[in-house]
# Entry
Amino acid sequence: MSESKPLQVGIIGMGTVGTGVARILVQHVDRIRRRVGRDVQLKRATVRDLDKPRDVELPPGVLTDDIDAVIDDPDIDVAVQLIGGTDPARDIMKRLLAAGKHVVTANKALLCEFGDELFEFARKHDRTIAFEAAVAGGIPIIATVGQSMSANQITSIEAILNGTSNYILTEMLKRGSAYSDVLGDAQRLGYAEADPAMDVDGTDAAQKLVILAQLAFGTKVPLDRFPRSGIDQLELTDLTCAAELNYVVKLLATARLVHGELEMHVQPTLVKCDRLIAKTDGPFNMIALEGDAVGKTWLSGPGAGQMATASAVVADVVDLAVGRAQVTFSRLDLWNDHPPVPLCEEDKIAHRFYLRFNVEDRPHVFADIADILGRHDISLASIIQHESSEQQPTSNGASIVPVVVMTHYTAQGKLRAAEAELSQLTSLHPPIVRMPVSD
# Structure
């Protein structure tokens, strides 16, 4: 292509993000031309319903309900593929690549499950897959890891990667409200989907962490190989107890090198209040990176939303137009010459831990708990016990009270073994709440 020839773009999927992408492409032609050095034109945008009203005015002939109008058009250089899920998105992406088009996508589920296959397919056809929008919306984290920190060995990623969960946790503590009440508000405000399961159970954050870990460490870790839990079982009690201890609870996605192994997990975590990541509230994301040369750096901003995600998508289109995306994509091949970093076994992962027990308020109960923890080499740093006048007494007349314990540093396997014994105590009532602590 000569530099004077416009870059032709096709969009597959004109939902919320696709509409935002189209708006930027048609409303900011001059701005993009200055960045690219030539015109970038939206030639086709595929939709399911041609008659549906859209919040963007497009030139005549752009809208189509035929995906093949994008795939088979030889003049379209870049396809923006914004269909969610893995089926039919996987097949559509392969068809686009085989047809000679570079692909921009925001589909983290597709890349998490089939990324290696699709990347290899793209290389076979000498095409590029750009995916800045797949992780953390408007935050340029893919470019940061793939380009800006290329002089470093990244040693740690600690991140809030799901704005829905972060909003819910923020509002629960701020308003003193239950999870179910805040979830309803999040859905009404558009921060949570009608079915929020993948956001609140940790899956969304885990998919994004898989992508970041592969970029940073060269190791592809399947979702079922590392611990993952969400916020859907958390109670307000745990957030308020954490606050008493000068912590906040965040759904934290962590990948870090520990003694030559890769430790990965996504779970509600107590974070010291004075840390920057603890101060990231509402629907915002934050990624804390540590490199062996640069040290610690932080990126924060909107992790979702129409225009934030559309911004990242168009940035990928611009990078493809000037050749930056192709260079970044080719660097993924460099990891093929190195053995993957071995994954740390779950039971070897060590933290300080927050534990909450619901116990009968009678003599020797805590002594039994402390004895079991001690026999598993788990030492206690602090204990909080509140009176509870609201709980109904048990059949033997004892009241149920919450007891919160903060442990010293210990391996998760020791704690798991201790919990198996603790669950046999008749004076202890489920659930046992366990969260790691990140100071």
Observations:
- Residues 108-124 form the longest helix (17 residues).
- The mean pLDDT is 93.
